[in-house]
Amino acid sequence: MNIPNRLTIIRILLVPVVVAVYLCMDPTLCVIDETSGLALRDVIAFVIFAVASITDFFDGMLARKNNWITSFGKFADPIADKMLVNTVLILMVYFHKANVIAVLLMIARDLIVDGLRMSAANSGEVVSAGIFGKLKTVLQMFALVFLLLKDWPFVYMGIRMDQILLWAATAASLYSGLIYFNQLKKYVLETM
């Protein structure tokens, strides 16, 4: 197994770890910042999320640079990404930090795009992520960083950066979903 595939597996294994930390640690234990309520639990969850997110960057870079692209990587990498991001988004909804509508729209978009990609793949068409799909991912990652860190340091400026980025990610998600749909609808609609 090559290094990018190992990094993908590490990312998958870190998903239940971040969930366990967030659900099992006392949120009042070792409060670091009174204004935001930032506690040790939040920082540990953020660090695990950050490490998992960084593995996504490195597995893709190493796979392209060294021509280590494998069928397993093509299959597992997007699943690992969605497992990580969607799980933490759902955690944020559960703890009333993220708007449920925004999260549902992003998850629904992912399901639709994945279905479109599978239909295209059955016809021999491989569809890589477009610029707006990549923008969606970056915005989601930054939104989750600020959600996990309870909007620190923007809480001192009265700016809800976590919510701004969450809704920007939702908009980018929906827009990129429309692009994918327009590009791939022929594969779904051809048999109607």
TrEMBL record:
Q: Record's Gene Ontology CC terms? A: membrane
Native source species: Holdemanella biformis DSM 3989
The record's annotation in InterPro entries points to: CDP-alcohol_PTase-I (IPR050324), CDP-OH_P_trans (IPR000462), CDP-OH_PTrfase_TM_dom (IPR043130), CDP_ALCOHOL_P_TRANSF_CS (IPR048254), Phosphatidylglycerol_P_synth (IPR004570)
What subcellular compartments does it reside in?
Membrane
Any idea of its EC number? 2.7.8.5
Which GO biological process categories is it annotated with? Answer: phosphatidylglycerol biosynthetic process
Record's keyword terms, sorted: Lipid biosynthesis, Lipid metabolism, Membrane, Phospholipid biosynthesis, Phospholipid metabolism, Transferase, Transmembrane, Transmembrane helix
Provide the taxonomic classification: Bacteria, Bacillati, Bacillota, Erysipelotrichia, Erysipelotrichales
The protein depicted here goes by the name: CDP-diacylglycerol--glycerol-3-phosphate 3-phosphatidyltransferase
Q: Which reaction does it catalyse?
A: a CDP-1,2-diacyl-sn-glycerol + sn-glycerol 3-phosphate = a 1,2-diacyl-sn-glycero-3-phospho-(1'-sn-glycero-3'-phosphate) + CMP + H(+)
GO terms of molecular function: CDP-diacylglycerol-glycerol-3-phosphate 3-phosphatidyltransferase activity
Name of the gene: pgsA
